[in-house]
Write a structure and sequence with these properties.
The protein has 227 residues and is mostly helical. The protein has one domain (2-220). 78% of the residues lie in helices and 0% in strands. Helix 3 runs parallel beside helix 8 (184-216), helix 5 crosses helix 6 (121-147) and helix 6 packs antiparallel against helix 7. The longest helix is centred in the last third of the chain and has 33 residues, at 184-216. The chain is globular and about 50 Å long.
Length: 227
């Protein structure tokens, strides 16, 4: 199974798909820098623009991951994939409807959180929401991981590493972006690192889930298992 995965990931079609995803990410990042010049002034191409083109591109990637994981669950009957599907669905809804911002503000207000280390009370509230969401999804994933077979464990380990990378850019770098006040240039670069990093990681996730679907979703019924 592992050898099949490695051979699939090294095919020209798989490599082309990955390069296409990453190329689009780099195009958006490059155009974001062009906004600093007089040559281009369309704010919809800004990485930090809500409902801008880069954000819509992210939505497409996350939505694709949700759909692929759903079909992977229905084909393999591995319950753990349904948890991953719901996790990415939450990420999609969170981005689209600013869930952690809204509930973060609610928590900050009701718990009377205080600003500290350059961060607002709102930021601590948002961090609390992210930790709660992580707990809700990671506990069942841990249980299914303990019961699962090798293929699901392999996928879970890889997706967890990518999820850690996404959290690094989306939470840690985001907090640096808020806390550090060293002029607009530094803030601009941190914004690029944050949003650009998230784009690249999500592209890797979309590519990985697509290959997993191709591998496990086409497995024979005799090789399927339930976790």
């Amino acid at each position: 199974m592992v050898q099949t995965w490695k051979s699939n990931s090294n095919t020209p079609a798989a490599i082309t798909f990955l390069l296409l995803l990453l190329a689009l990410d780099l195009v958006f990042i490059f155009v974001h820098f062009l906004l600093l010049t007089d040559a281009f002034d369309n704010g919809l191409f800004s990485l930090e623009r809500d409902r801008g083109y880069p954000e819509l591109y992210q939505y497409i990637k996350v939505f694709s991951i949700v759909i692929l994981l759903y079909f992977l669950f229905t084909k393999t009957k591995v319950i753990g994939y349904s948890v991953w599907c719901l996790l990415f669905l939450y990420l999609l809804l969170d981005d689209a409807f600013s869930i952690h911002e809204s509930f973060g503000g609610f928590i900050a207000t009701n718990l009377a959180l205080a600003p500290a280390i350059g961060l607002r009370a709102q930021d601590f509230g948002e961090l609390a929401v992210s930790l709660i969401a992580a707990t809700v999804f990671l506990i069942p994933l841990a249980l299914f991981y303990a019961r699962g077979l090798g293929a699901f464990k392999e996928v879970t380990r890889q997706l967890l590493w990518l999820l850690v990378a996404l959290a690094f850019f989306g939470i840690f770098v985001d907090m640096l972006h808020v806390a550090i006040n060293m002029g607009w240039k530094v803030r601009f670069l941190l914004g690029v690192v944050e949003d650009g990093g998230e784009m690249v990681v999500m592209s890797l996730m979309a590519w990985y889930v697509f290959l997993i679907y191709y591998r496990d979703g086409h497995a024979s019924s005799s090789s399927r298992y339930v976790t």
